[in-house]
Amino acid sequence: MHPKLVEWKGWLSKHRWQLVTAVVTLIISTYLLYLHLWYKCDVRPILLPLLATATRHFSSVQAGAGFFLDYGSLLGAWRDGGMIPHEFDIDMAVMEEDCDKYVALRPQLEKEGLHMYTRGEYVPMKANWLLGYSGYLSKACLRLYDWNKEYYIDFDWYKRMTYEEAIAEREKEEREGRQFILPKGYKKEDGDVLCNIEAWDATWPGGCRLVSWVYPLQPFAVYGVPEWIPADPVRNLEEMYGPDWKIPKPKGYKMFICPWLPIESNKFIIVWMLLTLLPYAIYRVGPILWTKLLILTGRRNVTYQYSTLPLTQK
Fold it and tell me: How many angstroms separate the CA atoms of 149 and 222, rounded?
């Protein structure tokens, strides 16, 4: 082996932990900056202009029942007074028979620079073989992406069903080994229900809700943007998220990072600096603490170092 290679190999072996510390520090520092600078824990600066632009056009449609905020967007509006900071989309809903009226706005919205996809269309941004997403839009009436095709609005549909229709649908699905989720304790006196695709899919609860929980819609401003929400937001949220709907629960990797990562830049800088120094602190203090732990647990004997004094002649 070449002498220089031998020298480098020896140097790497001697300083391997310093190198590991430097690499880990670089990864943590870069990743935190990415989350902050690209609004991954606070996407409101991106979602709000998208919501405002879409609402301006959607409000021009003379639909039968109108559109309203649903699921996570309803949760953010009612619980947080606006939007959930770490969300990545907006959920709106409309009656199924009105879907085409909103789809017809495609030319106007695309002139604004937005990107609309409708049921059955292939959405390149949605395709993910790792998560099993084919890329075809199958549930929502339409999906409206922002200017960078990163965040979007899902426009879900609801179908109105009488008590008899809903019970018949549930029985049919059960005979075929599938589920059709109705509100717990649903009875004829409760009246009609509104059901979306989740009632059949059963991925999320709250697929069917009483009409009286939703209509008549009530106005609600999201950071000054006029929107509509169901007549009884609390009952809808309980049906969708359970009794603990008031407790924030980030999804995916954000559940581990966003709850404690400050959004404000001045606070973020402090946390970023501390976390950037963490690997070095572990590198310096870790071995000392580990040795002390081994001694305390009796797995290593205490070693003493004696100094050698020079002999003196009298």
Answer: 22
Element counts in the chain: helices (H) and strands (E): 12, 9
Whether pTM > 0.85 for this model: the answer is: no
- What's the Cα-to-Cα distance from 198 to each of 157, 207, 307, rounded to whole Å? 10, 5, 77
Confidence at 95, pLDDT banded by 50, 70, 90: very high
The three-state secondary structure class of 228 is strand
Complete domains list, the chain, with CATH? 44-252 (3.30.460)
**CA–CA separation, 282 and 278 (whole Å):** 6
List of long-range contacts for 253-261, beta carbons under 8 Å, 24+ apart: 254/40, 254/41, 254/86, 257/35, 257/41, 258/35, 258/40, 258/41, 258/85, 258/86, 261/32, 261/35, 261/36, 261/41
Other beta carbons within 10 angstroms of residue 16's beta carbon come to 10
- Dihedral angle over CA of 5, 6, 9, 13, nearest 10: -170
DSSP secondary-structure letter at 67? -
Phi, psi of 155 (to 5 degrees): -105, 95
Q: Which of 204-218, 247-261, 292-306 has the weakest average pLDDT?
A: 247-261
What is the DSSP track for 112-163?
Answer: TT-EEEETT-B-TTT-BTTTTB-SB--SSSEEEE-TTSSSEEEEEEEEEE-H
Q: Closest Cα to residue 21, out of 272, 288, 278, 287?
A: 278
Instruction: List Cβ neighbours of 291 (8 Å cut-off, separation of 6 or more).
Output: 300
Amino acid at position 136, single letter: Y
Q: Which single residue is written with the structure tokens 């106007």?
A: 108
Helix axes 71-79, 233-241, angle to 10 degrees: 130
- Can you say whether the dihedral through the CA atoms of 111, 112, 114, 118 is positive or negative? negative
Which residue from 226, 177, 198 is spatially nearest to 77, judged by alpha carbons?
226
Per-residue pLDDT reduced to its tens digit, 20-54: 888 888 888 888 877 766 667 788 888 999 999 99
